[in-house]
Write the structure tokens for this entry.
Amino acid sequence: MTSPPATPPREVSFYDEDWRLEDIASDCEWAEEYRPGGFHPARILLRVSGQHKVSRAHSSELQDQIIDWRCSIPRYAVLEIMTAQSSTAFTELAILDHLSNSAPEDPNAQHITKLLKRFHHEGPNDNHQCLVFELMGASAASLVEELPENIPKLWGVPQRYAKPVAKKILIHALHGLKFMHKNGVVHGDLQPGNLLFSIENLDEVDQQQLEQNRTDAAIPLRRIDKKTDRWLETDFYVKLSDFGAESTVTPKGLRSPEVILKRPFGSSIDIWSFGCLMYEFLTSEPLLTVMTCGYDQEHRDKADDDHLIQLNGKIRPLPESIMRSWSRADRWYDLDHKQFCDFEPYKSLEQRFAKNKHPDIDDEEAATICQLIRVILVYDPAELLKQPWFFE
């Protein structure tokens, strides 16, 4: 008879020789986080805190696990179970409370996901803060893949929203940002995955119709040593979500110059991300592609340098203030800001947009959009909503 496995430490090692589970090729939370202080093993039909039943489970990113639940009253909502040692739970609660109490009658408030209640749940991996949100649908990142016109996925054929839908997503994101910034909150992680579509009222839908097949919902996790693991279990609206970050976690390609250079920042970092998303939604490709090939500082520095070089080539020449803050600028540019290297220059924003734009966008409109993207850093959300393109 084999001995039981040792209790894993609360901190996850980044060295694969210390991992206890086999690697899985799936877009889901990192399995090694199922340990004391980590994820709670939620499963279909699990009752949380005695009254909330899990109907569908969704994979998540970073520290949170998103699931649907149905409580004792006939109402569906979304339950977010924080990791037991999550440092973001208090931050997210404070932000949500602040936004909930900040002029709820403001029409822009309807573009922020609503917190309905909160409670704690004791599980095998410690005590978890649980947040209950209004029921929302798919994210802007995932829904585009399910549109009939994008199925089947074909090589070389872009997956994108129709222009009116893309425009409406952008408008609603701006309304949400306007409300947040007006009330002193910076999102810090504006990306398609945090733009959620509204969903029809499901209160009258039979629970069995919504319950996810347990086999489909489960991805088998197996220990490397083959032992049994004790810390696992076998007319739309768009709203901003995920307010729990204690620091900026913006995807690399959506970072503003001040985030790249670790300078003080404010709400303008959300506006910068919005400008990049505007290009992305209308072309189905990222404006700035930044890759990190390693975790050490040297690799991070190379990625940051590449990001700034792309900004200089695709958007506009970097100003003197950024060049002075960029400690490695002299590796790439002379005192007159001319490149040392003779690598092929990046195509400009206008050239790239003309090549990849939605077919419903003509040349005149393309010029307007590119001009708007170029000036987007100097506008706040309230000013951007005055731009005529959004309402044409």
In short: The longest strand covers residues 115-123. DSSP finds twelve helices and eight strands in the chain. The CA atoms of residues 55 and 211 lie 5 Å apart. Residues 163-182 form the longest helix (20 residues).
